[in-house]
Specification:
Blueprint lengths: L1 H18 L12 H80 L3 H21 L6 H13 L3 H14 L6 H14 L3 H14 L6 H14 L3 H14 L4 H17 L1
Helix pairs in contact: 4-5, 5-6, 6-7, 7-8, 8-9, 8-10, 9-10
Length: about 270
């Protein structure tokens, strides 16, 4: 009985094994197209990412250009304000020096007179001044002409200021303001970015008004122009001339700094 059962089980197992169908084996190596599509998709993604980064960089460059332009505009305004402040200070110092000199002259004259004589002189001056005011027409002096031209320059009317300063020098060649007027002609040309006329005007200060306190400043501006134009040899000559001939001036101090800068640039 046991043998019969064992034979039946073996028969059933054989039938069941024959009835099972194994799934087909798929060889992926025969389908290369699938691998190519995956690589193409990856390459497309990299290209899109690079294009996105380039676009972002272009936007950032445009923003940086805007910032640089704004800073350049701010620097130009600051330079203009600095020039106006310097010019205003120069005029005030000159006026203060004149007032001080006039006060000293009056004090010297009055100290040599008695009280009665002083009173008489004062009354005489007042009478003469009153008579002139009543009879004579007002006359525009060289000082007034200088102040008017200077105001034009200070308010940014450079071309009008150049004409006014030239007219002052022509009408009052011996004026105590002639050297200053010639210097500000150079400054006005420089503000207009007209470097050749500016250099000619500053050179005229040096050659025609050799004893003027404006000579060191004119030499300094000549050195600055040559430095900006990359003419280092000429710039060095002007700066050295200032430090040698005018060592105690503000221009000499600035020229020394510029010479040090030029030495550092050559390293």
């Amino acid at each position: 009985m046991k043998k019969i059962m064992l034979m039946l089980l073996c028969s059933c197992s054989s039938v069941y094994a024959a009835s099972r169908v194994l799934p087909p084996v798929v060889d992926n190596s025969v389908y290369p197209q699938g691998t190519g599509l995956g690589r193409s998709a990856a390459s497309a993604n990299v290209i899109y990412e690079i294009l996105g980064r380039l676009e972002q960089l272009q936007v950032e460059v445009q923003q940086l250009r805007g910032v640089v332009e704004e800073q350049n505009h701010t620097i130009a305004n600051l330079k203009k304000r600095q020039g106006n402040i310097y010019s205003d200070l120069d005029l005030r110092l000159q006026e203060l020096t004149k007032v001080k000199g006039q006060a000293q002259n009056i004090a010297g004259e009055e100290s040599s007179l008695t009280a009665a004589q002083t009173s008489s002189v004062i009354k005489t001056k007042e009478n003469v001044s009153h008579a002139k005011t009543m009879v004579e027409k007002p006359v525009i002096t060289d000082k007034q002409r200088y102040q008017e031209a200077y105001e034009l320059l200070r308010n940014g009317h450079n071309n009008q200021a150049i004409s006014a300063f030239n007219a002052l020098i022509a009408d009052f060649p011996a004026s105590e303001y002639a050297d200053n007027a010639q210097y500000w002609i150079g400054e006005a040309f420089k503000a207009n970015q007209e470097m050749e006329p500016a250099k000619a005007a500053f050179l005229k200060v040096v050659m025609k008004y050799a004893g003027s306190p404006k000579v060191p400043d004119a030499l300094l501006k000549l050195g600055y122009i040559e430095f900006e134009e990359k003419n280092m040899a000429k710039a060095r000559d002007y700066f050295t001339q200032i430090t040698a001939a005018h060592p105690q001036t503000t221009a000499a101090h600035l020229a020394t700094k510029k010479l040090q800068q030029m030495v550092e640039m050559q390293r």
